[in-house]
Amino acid sequence: MKRQKRMMILLGILAVCTAGTVAVSRIDFEEKMSETETAIIDIDSADITRLAWNYEEEVSFVRQDGEWQYEADEKMAVDQELLDEIAENLSQITSDKMVEEVQALSVYGLSDPAYSITVETEEETYEIQIGDETFSDGEIYISIGDDYVYLTDAELTDEIAYSLLDCVQKEEIPEMESISALTINNEETVDMVYKENSGYCYSDAYTYYLKENEAYRNLDNEKTESAFADLSEFSWEECADYYAEDSELASYGLEEPAAEVSIVYTPVQEEGEEEEAETSEDSAEQTEEEQEFSYQVGTANDTYYAKLTDSNIVYTISQEVYDAAVNASYEELKPDEVILLDWSTVDSIEIEFDGNVYAVEVENGGEEDAVYTFNDSEMEFGDILEQLSQITISEDQEAELSDNKEELALTFHRNTEENSTVELVFYQYNGSYCISVLNGEETNCVDRESVVDLKEAVNSVILDTNYEE
Questions:
Q1: Buried/exposed 64-101: b ≥16 CB within 10 Å, e otherwise
Q2: DSSP label at 165?
Q3: For residue 366, what pLDDT is reported?
Q4: What DSSP state is assigned to residue 251?
Q5: More confident residue, 10 or 361
Q6: Are strands 421-428 and 433-438 parallel, antiparallel or unpaired?
Q7: Which letter does DSSP use for residue 272 in this model?
Q8: N or C: which terminal CB in the chain sees fewer CB atoms within 10 Å?
Q9: How many Å apart are CA 308 and CA 221, to the nearest integer?
Q10: pLDDT at residue number 81
Q11: In this model, does residue 27 exceed pLDDT 50?
């Protein structure tokens, strides 16, 4: 035990001595360092013909006819602006201090350099090895192959802090002024359009529709607008593959994509283009010219990928974008509310329940400004319509109509050319739910308690009106 303790003490003394020796060694080198300014590289960036570095991996680019190419594979689309910026930053490198008597490169981290840079012109080749950071001044040690060690700004490392995929020219996701159609092919084909005052359904309050052959089904405005935004206003996260061959697509879930998204849109015009369009005789055609943007999404190993339909570049995307494409369907996007009407278009309402029919006349057609009358007497009916607007479809219960008993029926007579009559009927299903039917089409179950509350509210208003008479 004593022997083990003695060994531990000796090891501790050895460690202290070693640290002291290194410290003295470093001090000795600092004493032999001269503050000499040296131009490590001083060239015109336009003269650089090749750049190479090994930040996370070894990469090299050559410039031919003014264009940068990945030296190992010309199929890669190179971000020209980024490579020009790197070339500019590496064309002027200076050192403000120099170690003249170098005894051991390992002291500076240069026996096994962390990074290296190669800059070539037609006439010169510059090789720079990058070692450790200094203890102060925000500088690093570098070597250029002579007998000296130089100090330069530590930001030099930042200038090459790019992997190969960082240098890929990402394809543009266009800015869209408006979207007229969005089609998603997932397990089915979801063909959606945006159109105001379309007349496609009973209410122009809806602006998004599912197109099925020549028919249209109205979709929930908020949910569909959110889906449109998710699928058109996203960004590529990272480049996953600069050129994926067909045989490699399976590794990204893109050999058989989970969904393909096609968007018909009007692009955002630049300021100069807007001015040109205003002065052009064909300005209407220019501003309304539509374009198409399409991409595919897939998933593999809990990561979500996408690529343009006709491209080989693969990117990572957020799960939000993936889910919006894969889950799009009528069931996901159908309206929550049982009815959505502009009440200013309603001239009269027929209400039927418990064997009685009540007719409510509407004047001035607004919501706050509307005047409701029953048997020629004014009545408070605005809150009833608001209560009706709050009744929503239940996601937890579905049912099919058979011989169900009618609970409540409302018929809206409107001052519109199309869909001048809208009928909403609630049928009893069980003690908890009613089945709602709008213009003969089942919209499925709603909470029965909300329907009963609506009946009681109507009955209360009518009784109050009769009592006032």
A1: eeeebbbeeeeebbbbeeebbebbeebbebebebbbee
A2: G
A3: 54
A4: G
A5: 361
A6: antiparallel
A7: H
A8: N
A9: 27
A10: 98
A11: no
